[in-house]
Amino acid sequence: MPTTIAVRGNAEERIDPELGAVSLSVSASGAERENTLARTTEAHERLVAEVRGLEASGVLDTWSAGQLRVWSHRPWNAEGKQLPVVHEARADLEVIFNDLERLGEWVSEVSLRSSLTVGGIEWKLTDATQRSVQADAQRAAVADAVEKASVYASALGLGSPTPVELADTGLLTAQPLPPPGVGVERVFAMRGAADASGGASPAQFTPAQLVIAASVDARFAAETAGRVR
């Protein structure tokens, strides 16, 4: 009876990011609603005009601006006394750069403005590159599974393993172990984990490489080397 060998193949591909998505917001607060709204609107319009200029220069992949939001609240002081009404206004933007050097220069400039907050930077790949690198990682994960299965088969004195099932991690069909005394089938499992996160802190303008990970579950069958069927 063939021996079943179950393994998990893992792989990582590392690549420099191509895009940087900057999250920003302009905001203001004050006792006068109209004044607060006017200051935020002015800062927002000035920032949008600047972003349009960046777009025209070709350093942006895309950008988007959220609607201006206004709300009011009455804060409490340390003594538990409710203070007068404070009005708040805020508008968010996301600017995605394809020129990472210009990204660093621009963020350094705008982060000094009192009305503007840089929420963070997310490092990304273009869709085409993401698909290509992911495919490379998946192929490498399959190769890793085949190599692991071959090592186990060799250690048991078995012939080359033949693939029986292959699936994304967690999708392989369950296969219960045989009850005691029935057959000689042995199941070996190998598990691992891969880190697919990437990115950097808002102040880090030279990002680390992104890690694109893939893992697969595979089941192989192997028989004693030289066995005649």
Describe this structure in words.
With 229 residues, the chain is α+β, with helices and mostly antiparallel strands. The protein has two domains: 108 residues, Protein of unknown function (DUF541), domain 1 (Translation Initiation Factor IF3), CATH 3.30.110.170; 104 residues, Alpha-Beta Plaits (2-Layer Sandwich). 28% of the residues lie in helices and 34% in strands. It has three helices and nine strands. Strands 2, 3, 4, 5 and 6 form a five-stranded antiparallel beta sheet that branches. About 12% of the residues have low confidence.
List the helices and strands and how they pair.
Elements: E1 3-15, E2 19-30, H1 33-57, E3 60-65, E4 69-73, E5 86-97, H2 100-110, E6 116-124, H3 127-155, E7 162-168, E8 187-188, E9 210-222
Parallel strand pairs: 1-8
Antiparallel strand pairs: 1-9, 2-5, 2-6, 3-5, 4-5, 7-9
Anisotropy-based shape: elongated
Structural class: alpha+beta
CATH topology of the largest domain: Translation Initiation Factor IF3
How large, in whole angstroms, is the Cα Rg? 28 Å
Q: Count every helix, treating DSSP H or I runs of 4 or more residues as helices.
A: 3
Order of helices and strands: EEHEEEHEHEEE
CATH superfamily of the largest domain: Protein of unknown function (DUF541), domain 1
Briefly say what this structure is.
This protein has 229 residues and is α+β, with helices and mostly antiparallel strands. 28% of the residues lie in helices and 34% in strands.
Keywords for this structure?
Translation Initiation Factor IF3; alpha+beta; 3 helices; five-stranded antiparallel β-sheet; elongated; Alpha-Beta Plaits
